[in-house]
Amino acid sequence: MKRLLQILVVFYLTFSFSFAFAGEITLYVVGTMSYIINDIIKAYKSKYPQDNIKVVTGSAGKGYNQIVNGAPYDIFISADMEYPNKLKQKGYAISQVIPYGIAKPVIWTKKDSGINLSKGIKVVLDENVKKIAIPNWDLALYGKAAKECLEYYKLWDKVKSKLVVGENINQALQFAQTGAADIAFLSIPLIMHESIKNTGNYYILPDECHSPVIHGYVMLKHANTDKETYEIAKRFFDFMKSKDVKNILKNYGFIIVD
């Protein structure tokens, strides 16, 4: 009897899980897109209300590692082209990698911080700047861009002791918002969200000091799990190329890549 109950419980949970998640795909979205993706999904749902979209956010490197280790994501929306291309090369992706925009890295500080950003990147040397938040440069592309700029201007060794490293760009933002850091290396798209844009000041890092931050996305092998999952993933993948999405991205400061 006990064995029969165990079998019934397993059957019930399996059936319930399948039913609850029928008609759903999962996106892995980098931190700089964490606010924007809500606007994109809202626009998508206005056309395809029957489709369910789940979102997981984090750094590009963390997402890549999870996908390689079997995470059931259907589309990877990255802040670079390198990680999506690596997934394609290693057989984890079933589409071409599509670039969707270029965005700028920035230094950001709260309006009431008392930090003067007119000094440009040399603000990192300001005596009032005790802590500098930066996304992990080994996992997050805006952290990599920040590190490149600090090295380009020969400031890296001078400020290493001030760095507070966030796992991703959202955590770097939180450090600056809560006072755990005086300034943060972030991105234009992240700070353009209505909940953030009026709370701080920013300085755009010069193009000359870092590699272009070209964002790309790719459909993953898991999207081929079944016909329904694939159809939803394909609809969303194609929607990312639409004028609706391009307009949303422009509103957040992206330079559109066609």
UniProtKB/TrEMBL annotation:
Keyword Signal recorded: yes
Entry's Gene Ontology BP terms: molybdate ion transport
One Pfam family from the record: SBP_bac_11
InterPro entries: AvModA-like_subst-bd, ModA, ModA/WtpA
Keywords for this protein: Metal-binding, Molybdenum, Signal
Binding sites annotated in the UniProt record for molybdate: 169
Gene Ontology molecular-function annotations: metal ion binding; molybdate ion binding
Claim: Cytoplasm is one of the keywords in the record: no
Highest taxon of source: Bacteria
Membership in a protein family: Belongs to the bacterial solute-binding protein ModA family.
NCBIfam families found in the cross-reference section: modA
Listed name of the protein: Molybdate ABC transporter substrate-binding protein
Species of provenance: Caldimicrobium thiodismutans
